[in-house]
Design brief:
- The chain is an alpha/beta fold.
- 36% of the residues lie in helices and 24% in strands.
- The protein is globular, with a radius of gyration of 18 Å.
- Bound molecules: adenosine-5'-diphosphate and magnesium ion.
- This is Amino acid ABC transporter ATP-binding protein.
């Protein structure tokens, strides 16, 4: 297996899954023009679940998680997040976006704003939080990701790993109930991957519902309660990490695992 980037022990007793449904996706299909990118996707995610989505490049992983906060629109089927169905209704889209945080491969911080300003921008302008309160919240989460001392610097002055931790803190400042991660460590140097994964493990232990597209199979084994394998826009199989890695069912999954492990 590729070098595991997890050293921190994971307290599995804290990893509880509730009966409450956080995300429900039913017979969902999406096309980009003529191209059928997501095919009959069905997925139920309970609150507290930590799901790793794996699969070859181009299989639709990013598109799937982007549909969950309506960065992309699906054309048929249902996506229900925290009881709110995603339709063209802007009120629903706003509600879902306020509950779902997203962290991308490229951190997408605003280069001309300080770390603190990056973290307070949306709470102040979208959530109408008073500036002082937004700054206190931002400092709280910057401490949580262990970089409060960087608050007054600009993104370009930070390492990739630090910038990604800022991106996570920035998301948390909006108090999401669900976090989506799209290859959050793929753009990082190996020595920085661990610090980002540690932050994600901590979030998991606090009960955050998480969907993570990642190739960090050590993270999947340590933290995920379910691994989903996608290919050609479909969920091919899903299982708990132990069985997923040790007893894959489909040929596609076996082939994929033989390439990455
Ligand atoms: P993954 O994240 O698994 O690599 P993506 O969801 O990014 O896959 O992409 C799935 C497929 O959809 C790929 O074939 C990709 O080229 C195509 N695709 C992605 N985004 C767009 C877009 N905006 N317009 C057209 N095709 C797209
Ligand atoms: Mg992708």
């Amino acid at each position: 297996m590729s070098e595991p980037h997890i050293e921190r022990p994971v307290d599995r007793s804290k990893l509880q899954v509730s009966d409450e449904v956080a995300i429900q996706i039913e017979n969902m299909n999406k096309w980009y023009g003529q191209f059928h990118v997501l095919r009959d996707v069905n997925l139920t995610v309970n609150r507290g679940e930590r799901i790793v989505i794996a699969g070859p490049s181009g299989s639709g992983k990013s598109t799937l998680i982007r549909c969950i906060n309506r960065l992309e629109e699906h054309q048929s089927g249902k996506i229900i997040v925290d009881g709110t169905e995603l339709t063209s209704d802007l009120k629903n889209i706003d509600k879902v976006r306020s509950e779902v945080g997203m962290v991308f491969q490229h951190f997408n911080l605003f280069p001309h704003l300080t770390i603190l300003e990056n973290c307070t921008l949306a709470p102040i302008w979208v959530r109408k939080v008073p500036k002082k309160e937004a700054e206190e919240t931002a400092m709280h989460f910057l401490e949580k990701v262990k970089i409060p001392e960087q608050a007054h610097k600009y993104p370009g002055m930070l390492s990739g790993g630090q910038q990604q931790r800022v991106a996570i803190a920035r998301s948390l400042c909006m108090r999401p109930r669900i976090m989506l991660f799209d290859e959050p460590t793929s753009a990082l140097d190996p020595e920085m991957i661990k610090e980002v994964l540690d932050t994600m493990i901590e979030l998991a232990e606090e009960g955050m519902t998480m969907l993570c597209v990642t190739h960090e199979m050590g993270f999947a084994q340590a933290v995920a309660n379910r691994v989903i394998f996608m290919a050609d826009g479909q969920i091919i199989e899903q299982n708990n990490p132990f069985d997923f890695f040790n007893n894959p069912q489909s040929e596609r999954t076996k082939q994929f695992l033989s390439q990455i492990l």
